[in-house]
Amino acid sequence: MTSHTDTTPRITRLPDDFRWPGGKRIAVIFNIAFEAWSDGQAPGIGPMGNVLKPGYFDTNAHSWAAFGINRGIHRLVGIAEKHGVKTSIMVNGVICERDPATVRRIAELGHEIVNHSWGMDVIPVYLDEAGERENLERNHRILTDTAGVAPTGWISPRGTGSQVTSRLLAEAGYLHHGDVNDDDRPYVMAFGERRIVGIPLTMDVNDLPTCIRYGHSPRHMLDTFNDCLQAFRERETAPLMLDVTAHTHVMGRPSGAWVYDEIMGRVVQADDVWICTRQEMARYVLDTI
Length: 289
Description:
Elements (H helix, E strand, L loop, with lengths): L3 H4 L2 E4 L12 E9 L24 H25 L4 E4 L1 H6 L1 H9 L3 E4 L13 H19 L5 E2 L10 H7 L4 E2 L9 E5 L2 E5 L8 H7 L4 H18 L4 E8 L6 H15 L4 E4 L1 H11 L1
Parallel strand pairs: 2-3, 2-9, 2-10, 3-4, 5-6, 6-8
Antiparallel strand pairs: 1-7, 7-8
Helix pairs in contact: 2-9, 8-9
C-alpha cells in the first residue's frame, strides 16, 4: 500500500520574478490533440449534441472523431510546418496500430509526442494502480517503437489522472504531465528524489470546449486568444503560460484550421513570447529551479 508521503509530492511553484529564456515573461505552447477511441468505442459527445439512448453505438460521433486520423492531423501539422513551429502532439497508443506512418512522421519532423493513454476511453481515474501502471507501460512501449523516440510527457484523456498518476509518471522517469489546473504557470512536484513538472493544460484557448461544449464559432477562439495575450501584456507582471490547443477532429477541419493558422502566425511575430513545447518548458523549469 502506498503511504501518504508517496502520494503527496513536495511542490515548488515558480516565483513572480521567474522568467522564460531571453527574459521573456510569456510562454505559448501549441498543442495538437491527435485522438482516437479503443476498438468498439465512440466519443461520449458528437457534433449533434444530443446523446443516444444507452446501449446504442453512436456511429455519428464515431465517424466525426475519425476525421482526425484521416485529414485533421495532416492539416494541423502542415500549418505548424509552414510557420516553423514545433508542437506538442498528444497521441493515443491505439493510433500507433491504425496509422503508424503518421506517428513516425510527426516525430521525425521534430514535434513532441505526448503519451495520451491507449484511447480516449481509457481514463486513469477509472483504473486501479496496477492497471494504470500497465496502461502507462503499454503506451510508452508502442509510442517509442512507432515514433522512434520515447515520450517524456503525459496528459490523461479528459485531463483526468488518478490520485497516483503523478507519482507513477515520476517513477517512470517522465519529465512532465498536464493533469493539473491549479496554477497559471508550471510547477515542480517531487516524490522523494524524483521530480516531475506539472504543466497546466489551460482551457482558455482550446477548440473542444470553445466550439463543442459552448457552441461558439472558431472565430471566438481567435478573439479569446487576442484578449488573453493583451491582458497578459498589459495587466499582468508575473510569468505566465498559455496553451493553444486544436483537436484534429475539431479544428482540423477547414472551417476551424484557419484560426490555428492565424494564431500561430501572430505568435511567431511576437518578440516578447517564448514559443516552446511542453518538453522544452519542463526541461527549462527543472534546470532553473
